[in-house]
Amino acid sequence: MNITSFNPLIITDKADEVIALFEALGFEKRHTKTGIDDKAFTSVRMRYTNEEGKVFHVDVTSADVPQTITSIRMNVSDFDETYEMLKAKGFTNVQGDKITDTGSSVATMMVSPTGYTISVAKHIKKDE
User: Could you name the domain of life of the organism this protein comes from (predicted)?
Assistant: First the structure.
């Protein structure tokens, strides 16, 4: 398995407030994706580069959820391999067997046996 990025993902119905907080901390919006899974989900990728040049990311997704969810976002080069490995470790897909395909990525949120979540994603390159 090859992990290509690993960062926090905050899913909330108060995305504007969360984004404003991270902007105040020095993060900048880098990418916005709307209409995810044919729903009113919008995901914003934010980036911060510190004085030493280290780069940090946080993703904020706007969704109608009863309370904010903090998850781990893990981008991988082989989605199927990672999905099957997590299932073998007892993780379950919050969407049943459904995988979200946005055209530019495939993703789903997996829940561990102890309750933490990993949102697994693979970006689809145009030549794939």
Answer: Bacteria
CATH of the domain at 118: 3.10.180.10
Asked if residue 32 is part of any domain, the answer here is yes
The verdict on residue 128 lying in a domain is: no
Structure confidence by residue, pLDDT tens digits, 72-126: 999 999 999 999 999 999 999 999 999 998 888 899 999 999 999 999 999 887 7
Contact 118, 112 (CB under 8 A): yes
What is the pTM for the complete model shown? 0.85
